[in-house]
Design a protein that fits this description.
Radius of gyration: 19 Å
Shape: globular
CATH superfamily: Calycin beta-barrel core domain
Largest sheet: 9 strands, mixed, barrel
Number of domains: 1
Order of helices and strands: HEHHHHEEEEEEEEEE
Amino acid sequence: MSSMRVFPTLAAITFASLAPSALRAQWPAYPAAGAPKTADGKPNLAGPVPRTAEGKPDLSGVWQYTRPPSSPEPPAAEDATAAAGASTDVIPASVRRSQFWNLGASFPDGLPFQPWAAELHRQRVATNSKDNPDAHCLPLGVMQLHTHGQPRKMIQTPGLIVILYEANGGVRQIFTDGRALPKDAEPWWFGYSVGKWEGDTLVVESAGFRDLGWLDVEGSPLTSSGKIIERFRRVDYGHLEIAVTIDDPKAYTKPWSVTVHQRLMPGEDLIEFVCQENEQDARHLSVK
């Protein structure tokens, strides 16, 4: 089943990611092997963390973004607007405050932009994010993928973790075989990522990004000199926390951090997403 690309659904996708448990009925459910069970036979998301043969937490599974625990439920009136697939001109306030839309929303003074980066961000917001790569069927940035309403599938092996993103059919590799970050890597959409275990936390450092990437829908920039440090921690069977630090002195006056939360989707899998199939958006994009 391929996905039809419609840019305004950024709002609906974000709303789905804000909801307590977005419903999916696009893939035949298949029982998760080895899942701990509750008394009624359902997967116990609070169960113990699965481990690999090497004794490390196994991050494998299909994961769905969830709003931070401290964030409020969207008001009922906004629920109906976003669920209907609101246009980008009437995005509900709760969506604009989401991590997917605006990573700086939780910062009292916004993100610590360098002056030129603040102006670029202002321009991107003023043009309704029409140049966001996602609007043109190009790969999303790492942070947009972390906070996207469509799920991702992590596949963990002893020396490599592969993340398959349903959104735009993205594929990312995290090398855990001991290699160092290359000093002059070819610029990639997702950067070049290496990881190492610190106890039960996987620490991933990524660099070599394409210049002026988008960290969120509003267009908070990431330059080619920036680094992203992620700390993956599987809290229990069904929950994953990713503490992320953006270190990009060219675009920001200091490093800054956010924490992303994921929830396991046992028995679910990804669906095919072909962005260009029946694409109808580009000719309608305009600045208002």
